[in-house]
Amino acid sequence: MDVQRNKEDEEAIRGALTSLKTSTSIPVTMYGTVLADNRIQITQWVGLRTPALQNLVIDPGVGVSGRVMSTRRPVGVSDYTRANIITHEHDKAVQDESLHSIVAVPVIVAREIRGIIYVGVHSPVRLGEKIIEEVTLTARTLEQDLAVNSALRRTDQPHGAKSNRAINGAEWEQIRSTHSKLRMLANRVEDDSVRRELEALCDQMVSPVRVKQSTKLSARELDVLSCVALGHTNVEAAEEMGIGAETVKSYLRSVMRKLGAHTRYEAVNAARRIGALP
């Protein structure tokens, strides 16, 4: 993979790191780019106190990065320098930055690990499942942004035509928010024809993803997922949809079963991967 990042990709990565730091209050967020020789270089960061980890190049199989690359799954360590599931070639750099707990999540596009998102804290605080879910959700969103950018770059343009500009992370969030609000609006409309038109508009917003949707979700299930994607609790979703909280739970359980998800955040990610949500 080309080391030189497309500007749109860099903006998407920077937006993801900044958004993650803001939403979780985690002091350090970083992105490691997978180089052509499978080494990883820390290319973007927010909140680092020292230059110890800036532009650090990590050899294959080394540290938490190596663990992520080999398992293709999120990895968290609560005490980096003492963790027995990783190697320790870069302990000095981590100690110089005074990082204690670290979570790392792969960013996978077209089945290829394009990079790794890291979050870390300077104090002896354990980063729990909630943080891992938040980092994973950010990684899945970034994957979609990078996939869209790649697709746009592959699109053949007529000679001399101006290339389409890729949608950045902030614009994707606005699209997703609009999609969710449209679904909620459709839910409140009593006129069947108007409601169908609104639902058709929602479908058009996800159709550019061009992913075959093999799992069929009902309109109500999509409504619940749209609320979850906006960060609503079950009670808030129930109020928004005009149904009971237990009914929301029932729809959510059905969605998670259909999508093979274990958490509400995994369900949102899975729905986005099949093109059911933007």
Automatic annotation (TrEMBL):
SUPFAM superfamilies: C-terminal effector domain of the bipartite response regulators (SSF46894), GAF domain-like (SSF55781)
Sequence ranges assigned to domain HTH luxR-type in this UniProt record: 210-275
Keyword Transcription: yes
Alphabetically ordered keywords of this record: DNA-binding, Transcription, Transcription regulation
UniProt KW Zinc keyword: no
Single biological process term from Gene Ontology: regulation of DNA-templated transcription
CDD domains from the UniProt entry: LuxR_C_like (cd06170)
Domain of life: Bacteria
Protein name per Swiss-Prot or TrEMBL: GAF domain-containing protein
